[in-house]
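Late entry, written up from scratch paper. The run itself happened at the end of the previous shift, but nothing got recorded in the book at the time, so transcribing now.
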Amino acid sequence: MDDRSDDHDIEVEGGIHAYERKISGILDDGSVGFQQPLLARNRKNTTSQIAIVGANTCPIESLDYEYFQAFFAFAGCNLILATAAASLCAFIAPAAAGSGIPEVKAYLNGIDAYSILAPSTLFVKIFGSIFGVAAGFVVGKEGPMVHTGACIANLLGQGGSRKYKLTWKWLRFFKNDRDRRDLITCGAAAGVAAAFRAPVGGVLFALEEAASWWRSALLWRTFFTTAVVAVVLRTLIELCRSGKCGLFGKGGLIMFDVNSGPVLYSTPDLLAVVFLGVVGGVLGSLYNYLVDIVLRTYALINERGPGFKVMLVMAVSILSSCCAFGLPWISQCTPCPIGSEGKCPSVGRSGIYKSFQCPPNHYNDLSSLLLNTNDDAIRSLFTSRSENEFQISTLAMFFVFVYCLGIITYGIAIPSGLFIPVILAGASYGRLVGRLLGPVSQLDVGLFSLLGAASFLGGTMRMTVSLCVILLELTNNLLMLPLVMLVLLISKTVADCFNKGVYDQIVTMKGLPYMEDHAEPYMRNLMAKDVVAGPLLSFSRVEKVGVIWQALKMTSHNGFPVIDEPPFTEASELCGIALRSHLLVLLQGKRFSKQKTTFGSQILRSCKARDFAKAGLGKGLKIDDLVISDEEMEMYVDLHPITNTSPYTVLETLSLAKAAILFRQLGLRHLCVVPKTPGRPPIVGILTRHDFMPEHVLGLYPHIDPLK
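Output as recorded:
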């Protein structure tokens, strides 16, 4: 018969008086022991017996045996989940690694990078994000959800996937650049709305951060999309209210409700808010700088192959598990708050008070942050229940943990978002400042935590309006609007003095030719003709098939000027631009002639408009797919039916700054530069986005000062 009691009695040598003395740090023999007792918990039965062991009463081997078992189980589960996420990213879809927001932002700027929105990327993004968050990494799911929404929108915009037997004919009407870009913008907004349950914040995020071109029609489309997201979320939350869906729906549409009544603040409080904004800007810019260094270091490791990517993820997983399980041992136990009976500590269930190795009616505040879900940790930091719920040392250690591990984790081969790590770090140092300024401030520590999160978000991501609305929708506290606005503006202004936002830095580091909405200062001193790359390769209106095939084979250009020449015109003149994809379709159809004559009407009758629709990712024709005989190489083809006869053109003497603004605002891929004087060839060159990149311009003119 087992003699262990069912009411969790505590057995202590010397009785209850010795137990009380050990709790206070004094042993029976008068020597100083542990301030926090070491507890060995027997989990072999449903009942539990806690033996409190002094510094000189029990061998350490029997003391820590089960804690080692617990650690290996904890770290092992994390390692398995991390390896699964890394394997998906490394071997199936490398483009799914990271946040995905920089890639979506680049696509909406006109950069059609390979596989960033492919169906395989969507699959890995969903399951890799699940495994990565469950593995205990300091990452969020919000960035991957934005990428997921964009991938779904792209799948619809290209009419499905022929590779995976998922096609819908009615979606062919969206097979053009503008409509597909609009769909992906709506998808990104839907991702933010679903991640934060913030429909208006999703619209503003798409407007402020994601989209490069905005118009009124796109506004109501994104608003409609996020409204549908809110309705669907509300319906699912109601269905899951019974608890059958786990933690989903906890808190309803308001994830972190911190509405604690009237918000009163005075001049010292405003000075504290300014201080938070400055600190958030400095810490945010430092965070971006360190993330950039880590990403460049990881890039050297990841270049060695998928195996090295997986090993890097495993190393970071082990480090994260060691920190999460080891740091709470140096934290003291705290008595449960009054009125939290039944909730503190939370044993065998989800909750915000973790007992770890503490006695009954006590909790370990650091483990309550480290060994909890990210949402519960944020709720705990935002709460106004008790100022002393977390010790100052705990908040400092947790901030250092999240700040450092957030930097180390971002960049490994798993889907990972930055929102949650940044919110956690900002909320911890905001609550820390609130504790320190408690005697002179009227704001409670929960509101300081919210302002700290806002300041760190502004310092890292450099967004203002969308972040402000997202935070207000997250916390249901409209009374904090003036202070949140102030701290966001200050943190962004301070951080902009040091470097760019984190997403802009990642776009630059990946070498994506992103067009800013303004021209660089030195571009005012250059003309369009100064940066045109040569030699120019052009086609005649009726061109020999072999010439076209050779040009497509030897170059990677996506646009070619078409020139009308005698005998079809009196003098050479620019006919327009023919796209590479259209030329490939034309050659595949083999609509050739042995005579050098115009026969465009025959081509128009034999072709359909959808033949030239934009193909999905990886579906387009390649030059190697064409089979053309030697006899066909000597034949001619009329390019006029597939030529854009009204391209945008600028004079060669136009300021490069004006050309860059025109290129960006019109969303162009090619801009023709024509001569100012007659008697010369009808086109000087073609400007693409690469010609406006600072690396290209300063490479041509190294003597130019980039700041002038």
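The radius of gyration is 31 Å.
(Scratch paper discarded after transcription.)
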